[in-house]
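Notebook, student rotation project (T.W.).
Task set for the rotation: take a protein with a known small-molecule partner, predict the structure of the complex, and write up what can be learned from the model alone. Partner molecule chosen: flavin mononucleotide. Sequence and SMILES entered below by T.W., checked by me.
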Amino acid sequence: MKNLQYPIIQAPMSGGVSTPELAAAVSNAGGLGFLAAGYKSTEEVKKEIESVRKLTTKAFGINTFVPSSEPVDQEELEAYRNKIEKEAVKLGTTLGATYDDDDDFRNKMQLFIEEKVPVVSFTFGCPPAEAIEALHKNGTYVIVSVTTLVQAILAVNAGADALCLQGIEAGGHRATFTNDQTGAQEFGILEFISVIQRNINIPLIAAGGLMNGQDIQQALNAGASAVQLGTAFLLCPESGTNPVHRKALKNPRFTETAITRAFTGRRARGLVNEFLSAYTDMAPAAFPYIHQMTIPLRLTNNEEYMSLWAGTGFKQCRELPAAELVQLLMEERAITK
Ligand SMILES: Cc1cc2nc3c(=O)[nH]c(=O)nc-3n(C[C@H](O)[C@H](O)[C@H](O)COP(=O)(O)O)c2cc1C
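Predicted structure of the complex:
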């Protein structure tokens, strides 16, 4: 983190948002750009690493999902399928089949090692200490995303160099280590920084609802070494944000966000559309099976059935080239210092 010109990280955003163009633009502007390996084949990820290297000589990061080994209740899964089947019929499609999938975790790890990726971050879990050690041997900086103090302690013990603290405001999936987070205490970002700071002594990256220079400065004042912004970059022309998602972010019809498992079986924050409000609390903790089940609904490109991931600050999204946005955030931050 110390080597960054600006303490601004563009969050890894899967689903096609984090393009090599976006990551390179942010790194070239003095921040740290991130690719997102989740849901992609290892071959696709390799091509993206090659592309980003053509666009920048600066450091960049890549994020990957840690596969879960939690048992899934097949009856609950099928009950959910039965509940949402009528939506597929309405849209003239059929729900997807479900199957085991570890997101090719081992091969992706091997690729990161072969490619000597400068920064690797993990979400949905903490990789084993040996995996972190293998990355360290290559000089790779390792970040683990966490949402609770217990997860933070596990990540530090496994050898993480830094933690990405995900506040409850964050857009997209919760970085929880398990699908079912019932009963765990989660925090708004500023409180989370102070809780972790009292207990942990490695660099902290703050994420969740940070949209402008003032938000950034507050997180840094609270003790973060850097900030990670996702939603703020969704409207940048370099982002691969789906055009329907892009339009929805600017559409006054969407007034709020909520956290749900309805789309993927893992809790995630998105714009409240018809599907989200109808099924908010109905899906079991069954990632990636529910993700696979709802793919055909989301592919219809109907804004009421898509997962429109966004953080609580989405109304402050600015439609600017990524380099300009980074520059503006730094200028705003300087004013509020
Ligand atoms: C569209 C979208 C996709 C995301 N995909 C990922 C991902 O693949 N991996 C990950 O670690 N975090 C992902 N996140 C979460 C971000 O890393 C980060 O925690 C979040 O964007 C911060 O909150 P903000 O969106 O309010 O800035 C995603 C967020 C969004 C909005």
